[in-house]
Structures are given as structure tokens and as C-alpha cells.
Design goal:
This protein is an alpha/beta fold. Helices cover 23% and strands 29% of the residues. It is built from 4 helices and 9 strands. The strands form 2 sheets. Strands 4-3-2-5-6-7 form a 6-stranded mixed sheet, with helices on both faces. Strands 1-9-8 form a 3-stranded antiparallel sheet. It is globular and about 50 Å long. The model has no long low-confidence stretch (mean pLDDT 92). The structure holds inosinic acid and magnesium ion.
């Protein structure tokens, strides 16, 4: 079997070291911002699977305020590099009265986050903010307010560090551009 790298070219974009450094900074900022709020109840991290699983695993270890963690599954891509325009969301969250921080890998068109925030807002959290490792503002079709952004990136197709193309490349330690 051919290796993934020999099937498609990946141009390096964000190194493992730069991702690690940025996540340390994000963890500090989030911890400072939630210091007061979490005196009463822990910050509740809601990780959007699958793409954010590695980001979340690294970020949570940089958060120093009390927190809990849960997962939601959202999919808007099939095997294509463009959004299908449909979002399927699966979760069993109990979030009423809790301070939510949604952890996402990439905000692209914004469709997925619009669906998730609308659905979760109906469950009456005390507050809800978005933290995304990557933001592609040029691709935005649906407005999304991102409280914490790792990197603003151009409108190209990225893989690695949890982010996939057709379920592949998630295990790469860094992020690269998948050449078409
Ligand atoms: P949106 O609904 O268009 O904002 O897309 C959100 C989801 O699409 C992200 O959470 C990713 O899982 C996926 N996605 C968007 N851009 C890329 C990319 O460049 N590579 C891989 N997945 C992507
Ligand atoms: Mg995602």
C-alpha cells in the first residue's frame, strides 16, 4: 500500500512547534478570561468531532481553571473538498446554566457553527463562546463570532493535526495544504 504522502502532495503550512506555542497562549488567555466565572461552576468545553479532537486534547492541558469536557459530532463534508451544504449534528449534552466553550478545528463557511450554536442556544447555557484553531474568513457565508482564534488562514484546503481529507491525514503532527 502506498503511504498517504506519496498519493497527494502536502505543502507545509503550520509547524507542530508553532501550533504548540499558539495553543499555550490560547490556554493562558482562556484561563484568564474564565477565572471569575469558574469560581462558581467549571467551564464546559464542547469539542466538535472529529476534526478538533487533537486540538482539544492539547488545549485542555493548557487550561488552568476548573473545566469539564464533552463532545458533539458534526459533519458537513463528504468526500469532497467543499461543504455539502448540509450539517448533521449528534449529541447528548446537558448544558443548561453552564458556561460553554465550543472547540472547533476550522470555521470555513460558518454553516456548521451556525447550526451548532442555534441548537445549543435552545438548551439555555449560561454563556456560549467559540474557540477555533483555524479561521478562513475569506470562505465565510454565514456570520460567526469567534472569541478565540488560533490562526487566520487563507482559503485553501488544509489537512493534519486532526483535520482530514476523506478521513485521512488526521495523524499528521503539523498542518499543510493538500495540493489538488
Ligand atoms: P463550515 O461549515 O463550512 O464552516 O465547515 C466547517 C467544517 O468543515 C470544519 O470544522 C472542518 O471539519 C471542515 N473543513 C473546512 N475547511 C476544511 C479544510 O480546509 N480541510 C479539512 N476540513 C475542512
Ligand atoms: Mg470540524
Amino acid at each position: 500500500m502506498k503511504s498517504q504522502e506519496s498519493c497527494s502532495a502536502i505543502t507545509p503550512f503550520l509547524s507542530a512547534e508553532s501550533i504548540e506555542k499558539r495553543i499555550r497562549e490560547m490556554g493562558r488567555t482562556i484561563s484568564d478570561d474564565y477565572l471569575e466565572k469558574t469560581r462558581l461552576s467549571p467551564l464546559h468545553l464542547v469539542v466538535v468531532l472529529k476534526g478538533a479532537f487533537i486540538f482539544a486534547a492539547d488545549l485542555v492541558r493548557q487550561i488552568t481553571v476548573p473545566c469539564t469536557i464533552d463532545f458533539i459530532h458534526a459533519s458537513s463534508y463528504g468526500s469532497a473538498k467543499t461543504s455539502s451544504g448540509k450539517v448533521a449534528i449528534k449529541h447528548t449534552l446537558a448544558i443548561e446554566g453552564r458556561h460553554l466553550l465550543l472547540i472547533e478545528d476550522i470555521i470555513d463557511t460558518g454553516l456548521t457553527m451556525q447550526h451548532i450554536t442555534a441548537e445549543l442556544a435552545a438548551l439555555k447555557p449560561a454563556s456560549m463562546k467559540i474557540c477555533s484553531l483555524l479561521d478562513k474568513p475569506e470562505a465565510r457565508l454565514h456570520p460567526v463570532e469567534i472569541a478565540y482564534t488560533g490562526f487566520v488562514v487563507p482559503n485553501t484546503f488544509l489537512v493534519g493535526y486532526g483535520v482530514d481529507y476523506d478521513e485521512q491525514y488526521r495523524q499528521l503532527p503539523s498542518i499543510g495544504v493538500l495540493d489538488s
